[in-house]
Design brief:
It is a single chain. By secondary structure, the chain is α+β, with helices and mostly antiparallel strands. The protein has a single domain, classed as Sandwich (Jelly Rolls). The protein is about 15% helix and about 40% strand. It has two helices and 13 strands; from the N terminus they run ααβββββββββββββ. The strands form two sheets. A seven-stranded antiparallel β-sheet has the order 7-4-9-2-1-13-12, with helices on one face. The protein is globular and about 45 Å long. About 35% of the residues are buried. The site of fe (ii) ion (FE2) has 3 residues, from β3.
Length: about 200
Amino acid sequence: MTPALERLVAAVEAALGDPSLADDRARAEAMRPALAALLADADPIPAAARQPLDGAAVGNLLHQDAAGRFHVLAVVFPEGTSSGIHHHGCWGVIGYLDGSDEETRYREGDPGGPPVEASRHRWAAGDITYLLPPEDGWHRVRSAGPGDGVSVHVLCRTPADHPHRFYDRRSGTVLPYPFVEVAPGRWRAEVRQFD
Ligand SMILES: [Fe+2]
């Protein structure tokens, strides 16, 4: 834990415990200054958390709330890699630390149909975005460089419980996409086929 990370965790705890904040957007806004400060800090996260795993994308766990309300990941996408279209089923606050991200957002499509593209953004170091389902939970991210894309994700629930789904273009179906701990403290989303 760096001091900047400790301050971010304290701000998230305060936001989640503040009854005057009416909804996820208000709580995300309350978390934003501490994340902005972390992104601007000279020592934002441990150096090891900026590393991919075996050359591929990974989420390095920085903190998990003792009550299971949220966790903080350093998500590393090697330059040029893409996430595919996926859905977060509860809130998230994302801040960009290294590289850049071409992010496409989607809205829910017709029943049984694909998610429909809604917007595209290019994010760079210092930018902050929110995941606010059910309206705004689908996205695809592509690491556009230079270098590995590293972003700090504050996400609802624990990594193992984070509701995450994947849109499989080939079959046109939505599949479970749980985070799996592939090495100690290192998490990767894996598409699961239905039995
Ligand atoms: Fe995502």
